[in-house]
Amino acid sequence: MASTEPAAQHYHVSASAAQAYAERLLIAHAVPPANAALVARCLVAADLRGVDTHGITRLPSYLARIRQGVLDPTAQPTLHELTPVVAQVDAHNAFGFVAAHLGMAHACHVAQTYGIAMVSVKHSNHFGMAAWLAQQALDSDAGAMMSLIFTNSSPALPVWGGKSSLMGVSPIACGAPAGEGTLPFILDMAPSVAARGKVHKAQRRGEKIPLDWALDAAGRPTDDPTAALEGGTMLPMGGPKGSALSIMMDVFSGVLSGSAFAGHVTGPYDASRPADVGHFLVAIKPDLFMGLEEFKQRMDYLYQRVVGSERMEGVERIYFPGEIEQITEGRRRVEGIPFVRAELEALDLEAKRVGVEGLGVMD
User: Distance between CA 14 and CA 28 in Å, rounded?
Assistant: First the structure.
C-alpha cells in the first residue's frame, strides 16, 4: 500500500537549471541540440504550470525507451502537404514533442492565409502536456491562433460497460487568445477522472490516491497507486461521456492518421516496442468572422462573466480554464519547481549514468 506518513519534504529547482539539466541529459542520449532544447522546454513548461506529472520526471522513462531502441533520438519528422490546408507529419518514431511542434508550426502558418489548417501526425511518441501546443499557437509568429489538439495513448481506461483497459486517457486541449488585460483560454484535460500521470506521481512520492480515480486488478476502487498501475484501470469522468471522449481521441488521432489505435498504442513507461502514437492538430485564425480586436473584446467579456459569476457557498474565487496553471507558473518562476527526494535521486541517477552534471537544488 502507499505510505501513510506525512507529506515528503520538497526541494526546489530553478526553471533554468531544470532546462539545462534536461538538455544535457538528452544530448548525451544522441538527441540533436535543437530537439533537446525543445523537449526540455516543453517538460519544464509543464513543471512550471504545476503539471508535475508531465515534467522532467518523465525523462527516465523516455531515456529507457531510447536505450532499448524503441524511440529514435536522432529521427527528424517529415511533413507532406496534401491540400492547401491539410498536411501530415510522419514522426519516424521521433519524440512526440518534435513532431507535434512541426505540425502546429505548419498549421499556424497556413491558417494565417487560409483561416484554418489541420495536421495529422503518425508514428509518433508521447508529447507531454498538451497545453504547450495551445501556447505555441497563441505565441505563433503568424499571429495568435486558436487551436484544437488531440492525441491518442496507451490503454488505461475501459470503455463504458467494460472492465479492462482499452482506450487511452488521451488529453483534449484547445486555446484561444484574449485582450491585453485578460488571460488566454487554455483547456487541457483527460477523459478520465484523473490523468494516469497523477497515479505515477503518487507512486513515486509514496502517496495515496482518491478512491474514485482507479480500480485495482480485481475491479475494486483503490487508493493504492501501485495497485491501480499493476493490472488496474483508470475510471472515465462522467461515466459514458468520458469513455466516448477517449474513443473520439482514438478516431481522430489513431484511425485517421494511420497510427496505432484500438488499444495498440504502447505507453511511455513500456520500453518493449515503438509507441506509434497519433496526433491531430488544428489551427484557426481568430478574426475569420470579425475583426481581431472585436474578437478579443468578446473573449475579455466572456472571461469577466465567468470569473465574476455568483459563487456557490464555500467558493472564494472562480477561475478561467488555464488560469490556475498560469498563476502557478508565476509563483514557480520565483520559488523554483518542487521535487521530492526520490524524484531528485532518480534524475541524478540518469545524470550519473551518462556522466553529466545533475540538478542544482535551490534550498
Answer: 21
> Is the separation of the CB atoms in 157 and 236 below 8 Å?
yes
Cβ atoms of 203 and 225 closer than 8 Å: yes
Question: What does the alpha-carbon distance between residue 112 and residue 287 come to, in Å, rounded to a whole number?
Answer: 10
At 83-114, the pLDDT tens digits run: 999 999 999 999 999 999 999 999 999 999 99
Rounded to two decimals, the pTM is: 0.92
In whole angstroms, give the CA distance from residue 313 to residue 71: 50
CB-based burial label for 212 (10 Å; 0-12, 13-18, 19+): exposed
Distance between CA atoms of 111 and 282, rounded to whole angstroms?
Answer: 9
CA 197, CA 61: separation in Å to the nearest integer?
12
Cα–chain-centroid distance for residue 115? 26
The grid cell for 17 is 537549471
The C-alpha atoms of residue 266 and residue 93 are separated, in whole angstroms, by 12
Answer for the pair 267, 154: CB distance below 8 angstroms, yes or no. Answer: yes
Do residues 192 and 235 lie in contact, with contact meaning Cβ atoms separated by under 8 Å? yes
Amino acid at the residue 15: A
Please say if the pLDDT value at position 290 is more than 70. Answer: yes
Which three cell numbers mark 251? Answer: 478516431
- CA 44 to chain centroid: 11
- Please give the C-alpha separations between residue 300 and each of 84, 145, 278, 279, 303, in angstroms, as whole numbers: 32, 16, 34, 30, 5
Alpha carbons within 13 A on the beta-carbon side of 332: 27
Q: What is the DSSP string of 216-229?
A: -TTS-B-S-HHHHH
Torsion of CA 96, 17, 57, 235, to 10 degrees: -80
Compute the distance between CA of residue 231 and CA of residue 156 in angstroms, rounded to an integer.
10
DSSP H helices in 53-130: 59-67, 96-114
Report the amino acid identity of residue 169: V
pLDDT at 206: 82
Handedness of CA 152, 155, 157, 158 (dihedral sign): positive
